[in-house]
Design goal:
320 residues, Spore Coat Polysaccharide Biosynthesis Protein SpsA, Chain A, 11 strands, 45% helix, 9-stranded mixed sheet, Serine Threonine Protein Phosphatase 5, Tetratricopeptide repeat, alpha/beta, globular, single chain
Length: 320
């Protein structure tokens, strides 16, 4: 079994070594598509014996990713960014022996390196897939791996052994990236029209830029359909619920969305807490207690603490 690790990079001298070192012992080749680095990125890549492909940047993330795939000899691809790294390097290669699908979602945790590696978000993303001619990326940005011959492809979700950390949305880096992303999204919309996946991307951009009304506008377009993002579903609901609070939606409106979040992601204590607090505000105390008792079991200390303190208040009110 041969594994190829593929990157597209530009001026990643601060990140690239750490990322490569987290997987180098588990892969058979490195493919680096460089989109115009002027720092030490290429020198670092060469130090790991990477195959380097120079590419002229065209505001299109899919094209260089597909170029990397076309130059990869492995049966499997790990498509990873320079600002991502595996936290359990020794677990990587052995995990491949159990994969039975075309593609594999792995857990990713966004961390803020400006604030002690504080966790920001956790979700799952496709970073591993078979090197087959029908799997390619599409879309200028927030690009998706798709079956270009039509239909879907089968996938599975890896366990926490394949978790990666992502540092790209640390506070000091976020605004430049977000404004770039927004520009490319709007460019693609001008070219092909507004698609479902654009709403998902625009929720992320506008939310992170603090334009909660715009974020909610696009979130509502998603909520009006039966479609949901596979990647980033947890983050989508968190951002939507917080945007609703920021624009002063009523507790009743928030409960409707929290109901969907709980139904679709029942094991996430955050949504139980959110719904429980809204039940409390609407004086549905019995329902609030049920949700908050579940939220109080969370390993997240903030969720646990708020759930427990809310239960104490509810207990007093219920008795009164």
């Amino acid at each position: 079994m041969k594994i190829s690790a593929c990157y597209i990079v530009k001026n990643e001298e601060k990140n690239l070594s750490k990322s490569i070192e987290s997987l180098i012992k588990s892969v058979d080749e490195l493919i680096i598509v460089d989109t115009g680095s002027t720092d030490r990125t290429i020198k670092i890549a060469k130090s790991f014996n990477a195959k380097i492909i120079n590419y002229e940047w065209k505001d299109d993330f899919s094209e260089p990713r597909n170029l990397a795939i076309e130059n990869a000899a492995g049966e499997w691809i790990i498509m990873i960014d320079a600002d991502e790294y595996f936290i359990k390097p020794k677990k990587i290669r052995r995990a491949f022996k159990n994969f039975k699908s075309d593609a594999v979602f792995i857990p990713r945790i966004d961390i803020d390196t400006d604030h002690n590696n504080k966790p920001l978000n956790r979700d799952i993303y496709v970073r591993i897939f078979r090197n087959v001619d029908y799997l390619r990326y599409q879309g200028l940005i927030h690009e998706n791996l798709e079956n270009i011959k039509g239909g879907n492809f089968n996938y599975e979700v890896a366990n926490d052994d394949l978790t990666i950390y992502h540092t790209g949305y640390s506070e000091s880096k976020a605004n430049d990236k977000l404004n770039r992303n927004l520009r490319i999204i709007n460019k693609e919309i001008d070219q092909i029209g507004l698609q479902f996946r654009h709403h998902i991307a625009l929720v992320d951009c506008y939310y992170a830029l603090g334009d909660y009304a715009k974020a909610l506008e696009h979130a509502n377009k998603i909520l009006e359909t039966d479609l949901r993002p596979i990647t980033g579903l947890n983050i989508f609901y968190r951002k939507t619920l917080n945007a609703m609070r920021q624009v002063n939606c009523s507790p009743e409106e928030i409960i409707k969305v929290a109901n969907q979040a709980v139904d679709e992601i029942p094991n996430d204590y955050y949504f139980r807490l959110e719904r429980g607090l809204m039940f409390y505000l609407t004086k549905q105390l019995d329902k609030a207690k049920v949700d908050l008792k579940i939220a109080a079991k969370s390993s997240d200390q903030d969720i646990k603490s708020l759930a427990k303190s809310s239960l104490k208040i509810i207990g007093l009110n219920a008795e009164g």
